Amino acid sequence: MELAAVMSVISAYQPYAVRLRREFHRSPELSGQEFQTRKILVRELKEMDIPYRLLPGTGIIAELKGDLPGKNKLLRADMDALPVKECAENLSAPKVCVSETENISHACGHDAHMAMLLSAMHVLNELRHILCGTVYCCFEEGEETNCGYPAMLQALEEYQIDSCFALHVYSGLTSGKISLEAGDRMAGQLRIGVRFCGKAGHGSRPDQAINPIIPAAHMVTQLHSAFMNQLDPESPLTLGICQLNAGSAYNVIPEYADLGGSVRYFRPETGERALEIICKLAEATAACHKCTVIFDKENRISLPPVINDEQVVRSVRKTMQEISGADRVFQACPHWYASETFSKYLERYPGALGLVGIRNERCGFGAPHHSERFDVDESAMVHGICAEVAFALAP
Length: 395
Prior knowledge:
A hairpin with a 5-residue loop joins strand 1 and strand 2. With 395 residues, the protein is of the alpha+beta class. The protein has ten helices and 16 strands.
């Protein structure tokens, strides 16, 4: 079969992808609790007669063997939803389906990710006669809380994997376009968790107490200055201080003050240097105010940046162009400052993560991820299916 004929097979599964996306969307489940979601996935895998392995928790690895010898590849989709109460409308119109679970919704697009991967598996199942090697299709639990990838990566140690690929729908990119570029694309994440320890006392006599709020407040302002003066200005990063918790009464100096937030960055060395600055600054600031510091166990680099392999990107783009007949679907876009557990796969295997555009303002698509009005332009999913099939079929 010529690759140009593959597009008709892909297009035939667009209605299937839409139906599955809506089924997943109506019954979202939080990280590590994707039990019903896994039942749906297992149902579809059984229907395709594709062998699968259930991991501890809710993750799945399915094994799709081609009829021809070749490399072993990995495709991955995430499964979990968010504790976000969904609005029945997107930016301008009623949504085609809405979560039926109170205060939980697929507000990031993982429902579409699962639907696209299942559809790609259907296509590849039909094309086994031209598929080389084995494609391991991984459904990862708990991406939003980072709780699922350790079990998945541990299980994958038993397999020989040559390259990997994943997709993420993206409301910052025009619907019908795909961003597939080499280099750093999504941000690494450094979690900040610092407890300043002082001595409780009466608010009227601060000299008889040790107020931990003071160094915590200094830390907030000093971090910005420290980053500005000590980090490479050509290596972008953002600092988000989102928590400052201390005390419960206006006239009582508390014993503790907790500071929390995150740093997003794109070069590994920038994240490592930022963590060093955070720790040294916290200790020095605390000492100046006679406090001590306890670092939370999450005060660390939790995820590296997503860095796409140039060869994998080039191979997928070329094969996708051969399938779809044109390269007009590709569009460059700026860095996305969100973080992704797929970056942990990319530390182990050469691979890439592509962004599938779902922004269509005329129809109300384009609300930010993790927001109540987030919605997926389902017509864009066919391009995602094509990208996953292209990765699997690429030489």
